Amino acid sequence: MPAPVFTSTAYTATLRCLALLYIVLHCLTLPIPLPTLPIPAAHQPTAMSGQPAPLRQLAPILNDRPQPSLVVATPSCPAASPPSSPVLRRALALSPVLLPASVRPRRDSGTSFQLAPPLIRRLSGRSTQTPKLDAGGPVVSRRISTADLPANLTELPIVPDAIRQGTPMLRFTSRKRQQIIIGIDPQTAWIFWDQKPRFCVDNIQAIRIAADALVAKNLHDLYKVEAAAAERWLVIVYRTESNLKTLQLLAPTPEMAIAFHNTLDKLHNYRVEMMGGLGQTPTTFVLKHHWSTIETMDFDQIRKLCKKLHVNCSKSYLRDKFDQADVEKNGWLGFSQFQEFVRLMKKRDEIDELFSIYSTNGVLTFDSFKEFLAREQKCERSNSEVLRIFSKYQVKSPEGLTAETFLSYLLSNDNPVITNEYREEDMHRPLNEYFISSSHNTYLLGRQFASESSLEAYIRVLQRGCRCVEIDVWDGDNGPEVYHGRAFTSKLLFADVITTIGKYAFVVTPFPLILSLEVHCSLEQQLSMVNLLRMILRDSLVIGPSDPGLAFLPSPSDLKYKILVKVKASTPVKAESEPETLSSTTSTTESEFDCEIMISEQNSAKQKKGKIKTKIADALGELGVYTQACHYRNFGLPESKTVNHVFSFSEKSALNASKDTDGQLAKHNMKHLMRVYPGFLRLTSRNFEPHTFWNLGVQMVALNWQTYDLGLQMNEAMFAINGRHGYVLKSEILRPITPKQQGKEELGDNSKKARFVVQVLSAQQLPRPKGLKTVDPYVVVSLITTTETFKRRTESVENNGFSPVWRETLFFYYNYAIADLVFVRIEIFSNETLQNDVLIASYCAKVNALKHGYRHIPLYDMQGEQYLFSTLFLRFGK
Q: PI-PLC Y-box domain location, by residue (predicted)?
């Protein structure tokens, strides 16, 4: 069903109601003086189903050799109190297994798990009754932690009394400040204030203290807080079921701020290792120290333990493993039998079968390993490279790899899912020849209306490789402010936004960042913007062309560590001959900001009246050196031929322009820049599918990064290649015509045919979605081209989210024109009879980037965070 179109009358009435509500709430919120928080003595800081088909029968479909299965992992987490089951209180001497690549940070760190920089959190699975019943959710990775994850966190961290009982702090929001008593319950891992549990430690995305908060230096401007309070500032970013939120606190002392931060960090790390207890973790069994008070565990105790560790499988499955371990048929397990039980739970038949094909007497030799790489993985490596990998995992036997170390290889970064090698030679073409990872409404954490603006939003997209961020600037009492105009969102200081950008612009990639400015403020505050940009960004800011005589844009390599400004020019275009160099380019003065929300898009005559025109100061307009915003009128006019102009279209306008101009839009994008953004009628910040506009050569396809839907998943898949630098060289067919290209098919001519095969083998430790008692998983694979989408699915596996096995092969036959624009989306659902099937996890990749053979793909939740211990084992082929 198409999105509804708001009429001017209906929307105006709605807007007035919202405005009245906002004014009433604002007037009721009076500023209060900053109190001196008393610190009671008790609050002083202290130290701190049927058998599957044999694997061999399915193998010939893809090749003449079969396939394996994957690592064990652990999802959802309930209350984090140490298990009371005494069987868990003794060492379980299982050999450590390397952590799978899928649980590593999205941005490869090149280090071991213990040294990896990403953060780790859990998706909320809060019960509708009491938090103690379901305190957390499946373990997923986050990107922002700066602390190393210690190995062998075997004891519940000590939470200082002041924090456990609650300590007084000031809480700041965009409308008020209030004194609260905030603390942490170490047993449930819930943060509470005013005696109410608010969110789980697992939901935390980032914790920032004074040095990282970035707003600390502007506390006086933002909240009228004295500068000396900066070292007591604490910002906690956490996720709800729908979006991100920030909790901004002022602790009574700097020591308390640090203690609170450290307590959260230690508790989080403990829970991560706890949840890896029955999985393939980098340490021995994490609960080994708990085996101390009793000598045995019966089946009911084992079942309760597995439920606590979120081993989502049927009672009969557990009973089968229990009975196999209970060889003496005592009805209970001692320590050695419990070790065997865990080994049986970790056992993967697919791995054993594959290993047996290439191994001899339980050992995989160097020659056999090399054969496996060539035949199964389609990976041609030199002897020295194969030897390097082989030696890395040859730790159990001098003769070769064991089944255990072979599994370690299959789960490692040495067996990646996609091709992600950085090619320096691909970064020397002009900017217009690249797709550029771009964000729309970057400052928002949620939907377009009544949402929260946050510096965290800029930090997150920059840490994920975004290279074009949007900044809407309006007049403010204390200088220019950033927010979504007329949409009742909270506000940020422009100075804070630029400071944040300056700090995080190049933490992931050295290639240029583009600031897309939407300017709605006065000339006076525009000059303030210029001063802030120059003062904060300093040498990073591009203020003039390197060569005024250039007839084409510089390359990403030419602009390393540089920040470009996309802004309107201050003078109109001269309707004379076509300017061909940077020194002669100009632009129109009309703003690209169209008030589509105030009028129907179908009424073009009235729409012109709804546009907001802002005069741009000369000093600001001059910063649009290589990216000068230009109002589109016609592809044949002089402004469409200037080297540095950028046309900006809403999605609907871009599609209309493409149809009305008979392919001129795509030809324009071969030599010049364009930005396309979601229309205003996407009130919930949903995204379109970006490959529609990549197919037209649009470089900056801006998306709502706060919404992890198919559009954003495709965007992440596109920019996951080439080292995740945010720039991807377009296919030759989308770049300037050369003699070499003559005779190639026209754009949009889907003349090539291809086959894609996915063998769905098994999954490990799938999370149990909130509200479901069992998990009955099935897999849906979608192949997405620019013209069609094909879907295939597997059968459901009843009541087994821990180790479901499918061994089904899905075939796709399709036509395409541009290989870079064919995507595969893999989703796991739970089959439900009394409600709609529930999405558990997903993954998206470019088909031509996928490696062949056996791969363990990472799985992501509905907010785009990776499950730490959940994976899907597949085999890809053609």
A: 620-735
Range with the poorest average pLDDT among 293-302, 460-469, 745-754, 777-786? 745-754
Residue 466 lies in a domain: yes
Tokens of 91: 């060492």
- Same-domain pairing of 669 and 547: yes
Tell me if 728 sits within 8 A of 719, measured CB to CB.
yes
CB atoms near residue 132 (< 10 Å)? 15
Q: State the DSSP code for 584.
A: G
Residue written as tokens 């995740």?
Answer: 724
> 562 and 514 in one domain?
yes
Cα 115 to chain centroid distance, Å, stands at 20
- Is it the case that residue 187 has pLDDT exceeding 90? no
Give the separation between CA 609 and CA 612, rounded to whole angstroms.
8
In a domain, 229, yes or no: yes
Q: Do both 462 and 610 map to the same domain?
A: yes
- Could you identify the residue written with the tokens 């422009």? 494
What percent of the chain has a predicted confidence (pLDDT) above 70? 69
Task: Identify the weakest region by mean pLDDT among 659-668, 747-756, 840-849.
Answer: 747-756
Predicted local distance difference test score (pLDDT) of residue 385: 92
pLDDT tens profile 56-78: 333 333 333 333 332 223 333 33
Q: Say which DSSP state 310 is in.
A: T
Asked whether residue 534 is domain-assigned, the answer is yes
Q: How many CA atoms lie within 13 A of 868 on its CB side?
A: 34
- Rounded CA-CA distance 514/622 in Å is 15
Amino acid at 858: P
Q: Is 189 exposed, middle or buried (0-12, 13-18, 19+ CB in 10 A)?
A: buried
Active site residues: 440, 484
What is d(CA 123, CA 185) in angstroms, rounded to the nearest whole number? 18
What CATH number is attached to the domain comprising 179?
A: 2.30.29.240
Pairing status of strand 139-142 against strand 167-172: unpaired
Residue 431: which CATH number?
A: 3.20.20.190
Tell me the range of 97-101, 171-175, 617-621 where mean pLDDT is highest. Answer: 617-621
Average pLDDT, the chain: 76
**Nearest CA-CA partner of 308 in 345, 349, 277:** 277
Whether the pTM exceeds 0.85: the reply is no
Q: Return the structure tokens found at 827.
A: 């989703």
Angle between the 651-660 and 664-671 helix axes, to the nearest 10 degrees?
A: 110
Least confident stretch, 34-38, 91-95, 553-557, 791-795: 91-95
Express each pLDDT in 224-280 by its tens digit.
677 667 788 888 888 776 667 888 888 998 889 889 998 988 888 777 766 655 554
Q: Is residue 559 domain-shared with residue 660, that is, in the same domain?
A: yes
Alpha-carbon span 348 to 335, nearest angstrom:
22
How many angstroms separate the first and last alpha carbons of the chain?
35
Q: What gap in Å lies between CA 855 and CA 637, rounded to an integer? A: 51
Whether 829 is in a domain gets the answer yes
Dist. CA 723–CA 109, nearest whole Å: 12
Cα separation, 411 vs 727, in Å, equals 28
Q: What is the secondary structure of 131-182 as a DSSP string?
A: GGGS----EEEES---S---S---SPPPPPHHHHH-EEEEEE-SS-EEEEEE
Whether 822 and 785 have beta carbons less than 8 Å apart is answered as yes
Q: Are 459 and 502 in contact (CB under 8 A)?
A: no
Domain count, the chain: 4
C-beta separation of 797 from 807 below 8 A: no
Higher pLDDT, 721 or 784: 784
Query: CA-to-CA distance for 707 and 445, rounded, in angstroms?
Result: 9
| 612: nearest Cα among 674, 700, 487, 521 | 521
Q: Which residue in 148, 142, 84, 82 sits closest to 112, CA to CA? A: 148
Partners of residue 874 on adjacent β-strands? 760, 855
Percent of all residues in the chain with a pLDDT value above 90, rounded to a whole number: 40
When pLDDT is cut at 50, 70 and 90, the band that residue 660 belongs to is: confident
